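(Deposited chain)
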Amino acid sequence: MSILQKIAATKREEVARLKKERGLASLKEGAKAQAPPLDFFGAIHRPGKLSLIAELKKASPSRGVLRKDFQIEPLAQAYAKAGANALSVLTDVSYFQGDLSYLKKAKEISGLPVLRKDFIIDEHQVYEAREAGADAILLIAAMMPPAQLKELKAVADEWGMPSLVEVHDEREMEVALRAGTKLLGVNNRNLNDFTVTLQTSFDLLKNCPTGLPVVSESGIFTREDCRALRNAGASAILVGEAFMTATDVEAAVKALMTD
């Protein structure tokens, strides 16, 4: 069983508990009570410029704990001060030591739009994301059939939340495009064996429709990486590990993004 399959099994258990404890009606009411989403899409799609989605991630299955002194508020504040355009917030508890409450905390202290970074496989999680303050959600093409991907994207669209549809290869990119994605994420990390290569982004960017915003995710550590991705056509990068392992997070962001 791959790590992605293992995570999917855990998520199915979590969704079953969520349905039992809350149900759609309750989650929809919670979602309705929130202020409208911030403009995540506009924050990261700035033609001609490379935008930064800075990630708040305490741990990962491949690396374990990345930052022992992980505290959402000061880290989110440092990201905002350094010029990040949006935040990605890990809410998965079992594998990334995240928490749903981190979304509002990060958003309030930074003033930036936030992406719920999790393994979303059911509409209950989409409503839960909006209730928790998410301005956008992540949908991973490899985790669900094409019809389900399209359905979950449609639910998020209804609530004004863009879906960053994550792919790893040509086949998944075709699925994402057929689902009508307006924001494509290319994960340079293979979620089955966790190997990382930026070549994944370079290869897929060559065949992306003109004008489609593409976010390159994972394995980005240097200014040279940023320049190469921008020149290849990426609209934004999503970076977590390079910042979470830095002594001075604000300085690390500025060093990476200074052209």
Observations:
- The chain has one domain: 3-257.
- The domain at 3-257 is CATH 3.20.20.70 (TIM Barrel).
- The mean pLDDT is 95.
- The longest helix spans residues 3-21.
